[in-house]
Design a protein that fits this description.
The complex is a heterotrimer of chains A (347), B (306) and C (272). With 306 residues, chain B is mainly α. Helices cover 71% and strands 0% of the residues of chain B. Chain C has 272 residues and is mainly alpha-helical. Classes of the chains: A alpha/beta (347), B mainly alpha (306), C mainly alpha (272).
Chain lengths: 347, 306, 272
């Protein structure tokens, strides 16, 4: 005979589960909604403070920000293409190549963003639009060590035990390691000299972070005093009272553009364009560029001065003279470099 | 009372809760209970075993785009000594953690047995609390303890023992010590459970026959506690081998261990077949160690119960 | 019979005393350190803290500043409650079937149901992600609950089976010989007797779900951010000292719950 008591218990339990799921926060029906990834750390702070309120005010769209590195974003969308967990991509040049090749990005329609007219034509294409420029160089703690001059200084005896490095998992990491390689005879596609130099220097390493974001916290905790990173990280940490300064390497700092894209099969495609449009607007670009965020603007109406230190970069034209890498060439090589890094640096 | 002869049970008219009359045809409760395991069994089949089978299936794909079927990924794993060293180092961390945890955990267990009854709940509370605190919290604690400006370094500097801070974070020693704290309750609980069921007369008999405390420990107490000890070792080993958060934060970037390797292949390199292979190898390795310990446990139980 | 204290006795006491003191120290220090650090005034994790204040607690409870932490905590709570509820139902039923019987299939089922405690749940998390992705399901809270149930149900099984094994079968036989149906016996005899065991297991399952990283890591998404993952992110990317405040709150709540559960169901007795 069936068991009515057990069915009752199951119903009660099932009812409890249903009841709790109805308690879940529901998106407001009135406002639109968008789920957007953002790089953890300084970027997330900047976007929460500036972009979220702006998007809500000008477009009446609620944003859910989720902290994810560029490669992690691509991985998550790859894992569920037909129902991606977010609506836009925030990517560096390397992951863009991967995402485009994999068909994860929808073709970008510039006409849907009215603020696009404030950008140079070179800042957008069929796939997405640049939203910020990043400058990569060397960061150091002025209270504990001397000012390094260039990439080669990282391996000098005076910095033994104090240098931290991260691997090829990020664009800034890859670019820095390429530049290091160039100092020792390598090139954009040949990083063997960098690996050889690393191997020689490894006994004197300070700290190695596989998770590039951990670099920030390790610096704050005093586990390392010299590292390579991007400018906005230095500004944000400085804004928080950490002793840190940025150095333009003597061979030239690296520059690249971070871009926004619309994910294929996004659930909120229209809001995605509204989100992108807001970020491109003069007000938001100006706010993001101010200290302590210091995300370099791409909008013509927002001059780089006086937010940016004059000795760093004076204008967009000067940015063009910095070192740029061709990611279509680098991207296929990166997987091999990541795996080689694993092997070379481990204890 | 309704005269009953039908095959089903009926509730009595009295709704006060008088037990209904069971008819002679009702089966004994024990025999009907078997099917109760069915819901959970179905759940496990669908949401635990099926994903693992899928994992195995993906590990048999040849390319990252999931084309082809073959053992290419396993061949790739086996062919590179780097992979074996990652596996070996991971298992070794597990072994070292078990060793340290056992060395300091067994004395604590013995201490527990000899503590006054009143104090035992307090001691148990101290042992159980870390188990129930979040693993992220405990890992964070060890960051504070082992960091360059952390507890140990500041204490040693204040005592004048060292002049420059020691590197404790991102070392294997730091990892093993922190893992042993994080996993120690898993060793202590089975141990205490078994020890508390030991016949105290055995210890007294041993002492009466003239054996010193050490002898009693190694010849009587420990062998009899072996089932609990092995259960503890098993749990500590399994947990520490797969402790992703602790290994990554405390071990640091230079320690490439199986959990991180799996994560990197799955999310940074998008190589699902290879990630699945790493997962299967990890599962297989842990399973073999566990089965061995279990077999040892059964034999020791035979020893104990004669 | 009196025995003199020999050198062996002394060395035994000293060595064991020392080692157990080390063990206790290692067990307690992290918890104490976290609590003290949560009251630090500075932005770094220096210990001992240079100054003390409640700023991180007030930052934590500020609804604007810590909105995402609150959301993550709420999600974790909902998932834990749901996963525990489902596990109690499924687990108790299975425990009734398995307990005390040593047929081949009960032993196999027992091993299978307990396996999440031993097997690397990280591999299972990856497998679950691949599974749901193959089924084209968007990651969401219900899927996370589904993943958690498999991982926490062993705890409930263990304590419930232990409780059932201590149940006097004579009571059940008496009940049925007095004419009670199986259901009645269960509801009025078995259940009250094993309820403390179920509750103890449910408590541990609840805490295990709140704390779970290995499954949540793969199944988490923007819509179902959970507390351990968020704390980890805060720790790694920002060295946000609010993590210490969250930890302080968690430790405090856990301690209270353990004491309460000990009073109600003799928790500490049951899991040893």
């Amino acid at each position: 005979m069936s068991t009515p008591a057990l069915t009752r218990r199951t119903l009660l339990a099932g009812g409890a589960v249903l009841a709790t799921t109805t308690l879940l926060p529901r998106p407001a029906r009135a406002a639109g909604r968008i789920v957007a990834p953002v790089y953890p750390g300084p970027w997330e702070e900047a976007y929460r403070a500036v972009v979220l309120p702006a998007v809500k005010k000008t477009q009446d769209v609620d944003t859910v920000l989720t902290p994810l590195l560029a490669l992690d974003q691509v991985a998550k969308v790859k894992a569920s293409r037909s129902a991606p967990p977010f609506d836009v991509f925030l990517l560096d040049p390397g992951p863009v190549v991967v995402a485009v090749e994999d068909g994860l990005i929808e073709k970008f329609d510039p006409s849907r963003c009215k603020n696009i007219m404030h950008l140079q034509k070179s800042f957008y294409d069929d796939w997405g639009v640049s939203v910020a420029a990043q400058i990569v160089g060397i960061a150091y703690n002025p209270k504990k060590v001397e000012r390094p001059k260039g990439w080669k200084d990282l391996f000098e005896p005076k910095y033994y035990g104090k240098v931290g490095i991260s691997g090829f998992g990020t664009t800034f990491g890859t670019s820095s390691l390429i530049e290091i390689s160039k100092q020792y005879g390598g090139s954009m596609t040949n990083v063997d000299p960098a690996f050889e130099q690393l191997k020689k220097w490894l006994p004197h390493v300070g700290v190695i972070a596989q998770n590039p974001v951990a670099v920030n916290t390790l610096f704050q905790q005093g586990q390392m005093d010299v590292t390579y990173t991007n400018f906005q990280t230095v500004s944000t940490l400085k804004g928080r009272g950490v002793d840190i300064e940025f150095v333009k390497p003597d061979t030239g700092p690296i520059a690249f553009y971070t871009t926004l894209h619309v994910v294929k099969n996004a659930a909120n495609r229209d809001n995605a364009y509204k989100y992108i449009d807001t970020i491109l607007s003069t007000e938001v670009q100006a706010a993001l560029q101010k200290p302590p965020y210091n995300l370099l603007s791409v909008n013509k109406n927002v001059p780089l001065q006086p937010d940016m230190p004059a000795d760093l970069v004076k204008s967009h034209a000067e940015l063009a003279s910095f070192v740029h890498h061709d990611w279509r060439v680098i991207a296929p090589l990166r997987a091999g470099w990541i795996e080689r890094f694993n092997k070379e640096i481990r204890q | 009372m309704p005269a009953g002869s039908s095959a089903s049970t009926r509730r009595s008219a009295n709704s006060e809760g008088d037990p209904p009359i069971a008819t002679p045809r009702a089966r004994a409760p024990r025999e009907r209970e078997g099917w109760l395991a069915l819901p959970l069994a179905l759940y496990f089949c669908l949401f635990f075993l099926a994903p693992l089978v899928l994992l195995a299936g993906i590990s048999l794909r040849v390319t990252p785009q999931l084309e082809g079927v073959g053992l290419a990924q396993y061949a790739r794993f086996a062919g590179d000594p780097f992979n074996w060293s990652v596996l070996w180092q991971t298992l070794l961390i597990g072994v070292k953690t078990v060793a340290l945890t056992a060395c300091i955990g067994i004395p604590l267990g013995l201490l527990f047995m000899e503590t006054a009854r009143r104090l035992q709940p307090i001691l148990l509370f101290v042992i159980v609390l870390p188990l129930l605190t979040s693993v992220v919290v405990r890992t964070f604690a060890w960051m504070v303890i082992l960091g360059r400006e952390g507890l140990v370094n500041n204490a040693l500097t204040a005592l004048g023992v060292i002049s420059t801070p020691l590197r404790l974070l991102h070392t294997e020693l730091g990892l093993v010590v922190s893992l042993s704290q994080i996993e120690m309750p898993l060793m202590l609980l089975p141990l205490i459970s078994v020890m508390s069921r030991l016949d105290p007369n055995l210890k007294d008999a041993s002492a009466a026959l003239g054996a010193g405390r050490w002898r009693t420990l190694f010849r009587v107490t420990l062998p009899l506690s072996l089932p609990g000890l092995l259960a503890g070792c098993l749990l500590v080993f399994a947990s520490s081998v797969t402790a992703f958060v602790s290994q990554t934060i405390i071990g640091g970037g230079r320690m490439v261990l199986m959990p991180f390797y799996l994560w990197q292949q799955a999310t940074t390199l998008f190589n699902w077949p290879f990630a699945a292979t790493i997962g299967m190898v990890l599962l297989g390795a842990v399973l073999s160690v566990v089965t061995t310990l279990n077999a040892l446990g059964r034999r020791s139980r035979a020893l104990v119960h004669g | 019979m009196a025995r003199q204290t020999t050198a062996g006795d002394l060395s035994y006491r000293v060595v064991l005393g020392l080692l157990s003191a080390v063990a206790l120290l290692i067990l307690i220090t992290p918890v104490v350190v976290v609590i003290i650090t949560s009251f630090t005034d500075s932005r770094s994790l220096r210990f001992p803290p240079p100054a003390y204040s409640l700023r991180w607690y007030s930052a934590l409870f500020d609804p604007v500043q810590s909105a995402q932490i609150h959301t993550a905590a709420w999600n974790s709570l909902v998932i834990a409650v749901a996963a525990t509820a489902i596990s109690v139902v499924l687990g108790t039923a299975a425990a009734l079937a398995i307990s005390g019987r040593r047929t081949w299939w009960t032993q196999t089922l027992d091993a299978v149901f307990m396996s999440p405690l031993i097997l690397p749940t990280l591999a299972f998390g990856l497998a679950a992600l691949m599974f749901f992705s193959t089924l084209r399901l968007r990651l969401s809270l219900p899927l996370m609950i589904v993943g958690h149930v498999a991982v926490v149900v062993p705890f409930i099984l263990r304590t419930t089976i232990a409780s059932l094994s201590q149940l006097d079968r004579g009571l059940l036989d008496t009940s049925s010989s007095l004419g009670a149906s199986g259901i009645y016996t269960f509801w009025r005899v078995t259940l009250p007797a094993i309820r403390p065991g179920i509750l103890a297991g449910a408590f541990i399952a609840f805490m295990a779900s709140l704390d779970n990283v290995s499954v949540s890591l793969f199944l988490a998404g923007p819509e179902n951010d959970v507390l351990p993952i968020r704390m980890w992110g805060m720790l790694e990317s920002q060295l946000d000292v609010r993590t210490a405040a969250v930890s302080g709150v968690l430790i405090f709540t856990t301690a209270i719950l353990v004491v309460v559960m000990d009073r109600i169901v003799g928790l500490t007795r049951r899991i040893s």
